[in-house]
Amino acid sequence: MVSTSNILIEAKNLRKHFAITQGFVKRKVAGWIKAVDGVSFSINRGETFGLVGESGCGKTTTARLILLLDQPTSGSILFRGEDISTLPKTSLREYSISVQAVFQDPYGSLDPRMKVGDIISEPLIVTQTLPRQAVIERAKEVLLDVGLGPESINRFPHQFSGGQRQRIAVARALAPEPKVIVLDEPVSALDVSIRAQLMNLLKALQERLGLTYLLIAHDLAVIKHMSNCIGVMYVGGLVEYGDAEEIYQHPCHPYTVGLLSAALPASPDAPTREVILSGEVPSPINPPTGCRFHPRCSHAKEICSDEEPVLRKVAPNHFVSCHFELGG
Amino acid sequence: MLRHRESERRRRVDSSLGDSSTGRKVLDVSDLKTYFFFREGVLKAVDGVSFLLREGETIGLVGESGCGKTITCLSILRLIARPGRVVSGQVLLNGEDLLKKSEREMSQIRGRRITMILQDPMTSLNPVLTIGNQVAEAIEIHQRARGNRLWEKTVEILRLVRIPSPEMRLGDYPHQMSGGMRQRVAGAAALSCRPEVLIADECTTSLDVTIQAQYLNLLKEVQSQLHVAMIFVTHDFGIVAKMCDRVAVMYAGKIVEGAPMKELFHNPLHPYTAALLRSVPKLEGGEKWLTTIEGQPPSLMNLPLGCRFAPRCSQIEDRCLEEYPPSVIVNKTHTVSCWRAV
Question: For residues B13 and B342, what is the distance between their CA atoms, to the nearest angstrom?
Fold first, then answer.
């Protein structure tokens, strides 16, 4: 896809299936939720990969797999070209320090009973053996990085507004000097004017510290603004993948086209594409056979329900999983 | 005396809010003030809001959280609980002042003449009643329908909001439906009595993008069928661009700018509106850095003396810190409260 040397983190055919169990005494598996079903992507050093899709499409599960919060059913994660499932424990520890996260809800992700200083220094204390003074210094440093005063370390999360709390969450992620930050809907809980502040901050930090982002959002405009590369997810799989500008200009998958036209215009004169998708996202418990999008697709033919399309190249750095040559 | 006349003039100016059409006035809100009285002080959630809604028209009430959008709507419906109180103002629904109605008269108006769709259908619908029951309730109370006629009316309204095979789904509980379907049911309950005014309070925030697009299109269609006037409360300028005829931008309890939708997008006059419009990332691309508004909205308990936006404003003058700017009309249809425009 791209020159391999520049790839920092790569997911190969990741799958995560959750068992649905029945019975109280005798548990038996009644079915599988295929939350993530064969997702592959790679992120270059210092770039942002944006995962976009509707709720329940498996974006967050993918993030959890990257963060090692869940074990993948199959597939592998490569960090600097090495498969992390084969790494010894010490290197695995290094990986989990290198990959940090910022979550959606800054009210839920910060412990209300801990002081900000303790929240930020916790990852340092857990992962590194530093003297107490150095930990405090580092906490003050990252607070300055995110635009909060060092005096904040003695305050509690409830003394901050939503935007400031999200800055604290970013500071916590920055503290152990990670290489990758997984941003799971980092701005969707924030107000419009505060959202812009945080997006600028994240971009500035990326430039200054050379961070690599995996950004998850449902808002196409946010994804487009922040990302170099975009993956469009639908019911556990990537339907389109590639360069952000290219996908916006020439969406090839009917779902991407629908998603783009459903996105609200930023102004009344913005070009609108009126392809309103009908129907709803199917359940990942019993996803449709063949192409998962075919029940909602206006171009669907017989082959779509029989055969699952594979990701194929339509342009350099633009891949789509559809049987037909559409869009353009 | 002069001062009184001055404030009277301002009030009239306020309530026109970019209105130039001649349709029948449905709702005329003027100088509405809703305060919350706490031990620590008075919280001025809505502080002199005026706007006008004409038949079949959609007005967008835009602003960030805590600016008083929802409290304005709840005040119109007289649903403010203690320690809050509507302290002054007028809410004229076809000429009748709702703030002077008795509680009994109000219950004839709510759910019949003015209805509301709330943000989260999972909490606005009752989880232990079937959707048929919940939609039928409003029809039963306000239209006194019974038996077969009630059933027919319920099915008809569910068909209007495009619930597939409504006869079959009447017995379903809310948890058996998807988020988009649930919000349609909430819409059906709100529209069942053909209200004069429909208030949609962030009604698509909990929906996915493609479902949101379906829902907004549906609301537009239903509006043109029923000629209902709508107040769209939102923080999203995209929804405004798609749905609204006129827009009122709120900041810290006051309407700072009001204009026809296109005029507002092309020629925002208040620095807050202009900055807010530029702080939204655009799909068509644009600058690398977004415009930000530094700082945060003021506390509604401790408002600045002058213009409420002054502490965050980039074009501040001395006057801004001393006195709140009057609302002035620019270009006939455009009103703005900013000293630079005076």
Answer: 13
What are the structural domain ranges in chain B? 2-113+195-341
- Chain B contact set for A224 (CB, 8 A): 281, 283, 285
Residue B268's Cβ-side half-sphere holds a number of Cα atoms within 13 Å equal to 16
CB B282 within 8 A of CB A223: no
DSSP string across A76-134: EEEETTEEGGGS-HHHHHHHHHHEEEE-S-TTTSS-TTS-HHHHHHHHHHHH----HHH
Question: Taking CB atoms and an 8 Å cutoff, what residues of chain A touch B290?
Answer: 196, 199-200, 225
Rounded Cα–Cα distance for residues A200 and A213 (Å): 14
Question: Which pLDDT score is estimated for A207?
Answer: 94
CB B249 within 8 A of CB B256: yes
What residue type is B252 in one-letter code?
A
Please tell me the predicted confidence (pLDDT) of residue B179: 86
CB A9 within 8 A of CB A62: no
Chain A, chain B: beta-carbon pairs less than 8 Å apart:
122
> Confidence class of residue A264 from pLDDT cuts 50, 70 and 90?
confident
Interface test with B, best of A164, A203, A225, A257 (most B CBs within 10 A): A225
Contact B233, B201 (CB under 8 A): yes
Instruction: Kindly state whether residue A14 falls inside one of the protein's structural domains.
Output: yes
pTM of the predicted model, to two decimals? 0.85
Average pLDDT over residues A4-8: 78
Give me the CATH number covering residue A208: 3.40.50.300
pLDDT digits (tens, 9 = 90+) for B198-215: 999 988 888 888 888 889
Per DSSP, the residues of A195-232 read HHHHHHHHHHHHHHHT-EEEEEES-HHHHHHH-SEEEE
Q: Which domain holds residue A87?
A: 4-265+272-320
Residue B7: pLDDT over 50: no
The pLDDT of residue A110 is: 93
Question: Residue B12: which pLDDT band, with cuts at 50, 70 and 90?
Answer: very low
Chain B residues near residue A192 by CB distance under 8 angstroms: 64, 235-237, 276, 279-280
User: In this structure, what DSSP letter does residue B204 have?
Assistant: T
**What 3-state DSSP class applies to B104?**
helix
Partners of B96 in beta bridges: B93
Beta-carbon count within 10 A of A124 CB: 21
DSSP code of B66? Answer: T
CB pair distance less than 8 Å for B293 and A193 = yes
Chain-chain contact of A197 with B212 (C-beta, under 8 angstroms): no
Report how many domains make up chain A: 1
Q: Mean pLDDT of all residues in chain A?
A: 88
For A269-315, the pLDDT digits (tens) are 776 666 778 777 888 888 888 898 998 888 888 888 888 888 889 88
Distance of CA B102 to the CA centre of its chain: 24
Task: Work out the minimum CA distance from A78 to partner chain B, whole angstroms.
Answer: 30
CATH of B2-113+195-341, one of 3.40.50.1100, 2.170.150.70, 3.40.50.1980, 3.40.50.300: 3.40.50.300
Mutate to test the interface with A, among B209, B242, B266 (most CBs of A within 10 A): B209
- Rounded Cα distance, B18 and B28, in Å: 13
Average pLDDT over residues A5-27: 88
**Rounded Cα distance, B12 and A202, in Å:** 45
* B174-201 pLDDT tens trace: 998 888 889 999 999 999 988 999 999 9
Name the band, by pLDDT with cuts 50, 70 and 90, for residue B14.
very low
